């Protein structure tokens, strides 16, 4: 579907998805609605695609140059912000007018379904299963990582069109292995089936977002900069405000992740410039946001653990002036944040440890 010179419009990219598209000679165009890049907001659906920008993009390139339109549930890189059913319906209408396929990354669908239930009027009276059916009916292809949706290893690609299914099936032995010598085991498929069924339970899918909302609310109350409203997947700390003295070119979200690990033993995830890759000329594209993601999958953490993380992040915020930036010492060309190595720009980590021990001793 992606060939050299084609374009993939999307509400928000994901790192590995972008890498695959670029390696196949395509380019991405992020056309998220402007509200999606507002760090502090009360808008319930900041993951929506800008439909007018989609129409403009199609007019500029021509429908023949659009490989497909990709929507992502729970927009990972901007704070797990959901997409409304109405926005998906509007995007589907544009795709129908221009003969384009709508591809849906449903990895964070469970959280998105919860937000549809509590935030979108048209879905408040629907069962989770019915909302899922409406979302699925809008899509030509749905794919997802089962580690996020279904709580199992592996994943799935669901395809509406038989001819496209045959085309994609031919790639399975090439990239994954044949059914009898690679891919998912039967027990993993069974676990995925159970996990997907559990995702239809409102009580089940509400636990993660409720814990996240609690953490976001507590941090916001203490003046610690976080993405609002609370989204799915995790609590997202705004590193550019948290470390407003650190240059963005020194990866403040990565530095904050390292500093928070020192202060708490809690492993967060950088979602910012470090998660991007350099332009072909070697220049560094700066991300729209620099976020520390503190993921909270359902049925994993207790409230006491969340309170501990809040307490330690509060301490780190009071000592944020000690935290500096990072530089690469080993930088892979593709998806550098997986295997890259970084070093602090100064001895700030030692200074942070010294302050930590002065306040907490050897509590870790």
Automatic annotation (TrEMBL):
GO biological process: amino acid metabolic process
Assembly and interaction partners: Homotetramer.
Known cofactor(s): pyridoxal 5'-phosphate
Molecular function, one GO term: lyase activity
InterPro entries according to UniProt: ArAA_b-elim_lyase/Thr_aldolase, PyrdxlP-dep_Trfase, PyrdxlP-dep_Trfase_major, PyrdxlP-dep_Trfase_small
Protein name: Tryptophanase
Keyword entries, A-Z: Pyridoxal phosphate
Lineage: Bacteria, Pseudomonadati, Pseudomonadota, Alphaproteobacteria, Rhodobacterales
Gene3D superfamilies, A to Z: Aspartate Aminotransferase, domain 1, Type I PLP-dependent aspartate aminotransferase-like (Major domain)
NCBIfam families with a match to the protein in the record: PRK13238.1
Pfam families documented for this protein: Beta_elim_lyase
Ranges of residues in domain Aromatic amino acid beta-eliminating lyase/threonine aldolase: 11-305
Family assignment from sequence similarity: Belongs to the beta-eliminating lyase family.
